[in-house]
Amino acid sequence: MSKELVVITGASSGIGEATARAFSLAGHPLLLLARRVERLEVLELPNTMCEKVDVTDLESFKSAVKNAEAKYGQVDCLVNCAGLMLLGNIDTQSPAEWKAMFDVNVMGVLNGVKSVISEMKARKGGTIVNISSVAGRKTFPEHAAYCGTKFAVHAMTENIREEVCGSNVRLVTIAPGVVETELLSHTTSDEIISGYNEFKKSMGSVLIPQDIAGAIMFAYQQPQNVCVREIVIAPTGQPQ
Is 220 known to be catalytic? Predict the structure, then answer.
């Protein structure tokens, strides 16, 4: 292939899907990972492998990467898009929801990094983009556990960036504000969903996944010696 392999998690919808389309349009072969593999396959992107992978399963993640590299060459970019947003009050929210978010949003990111970082360091090149959130920089009501996971993504990304910068490997944090995706539908409280939708309406308009994909492409397409460490991108009308 004339362009390098890109791996995208959570590529079955939202930011992940938009990012897959953007990298495909730019001519990159892709490895797309998600639990809903049928939604990856219907995208019908050229030079693309679609794998049903739970990002919390490190060995499955590593196996999928190995298979894609055998066909398309080494991974030059990993975009960790897979995520859960389960909003709730700390006194009533199920601990199972906390665990689900930490498993996907934190361990899933670490598993992705673990699957590609050694090879990137060895060849002295590569980029890892982790999707965090504005909720990884400040707190919001009913977001306690979710904020915890996204503060972790910010911290992990910056810490790993410091560890590998001497090997010419880039780590980038993308911190979106409110984006129109399926994330809110994961929340089980109708009252919280209603309040969040009112918050969205108060802004006039919110971001769409293609806005975030554009930010990711901007950071990735910089020369390898230029690391855009963090992009915070939100609707103009979002006050927080």
Answer: no
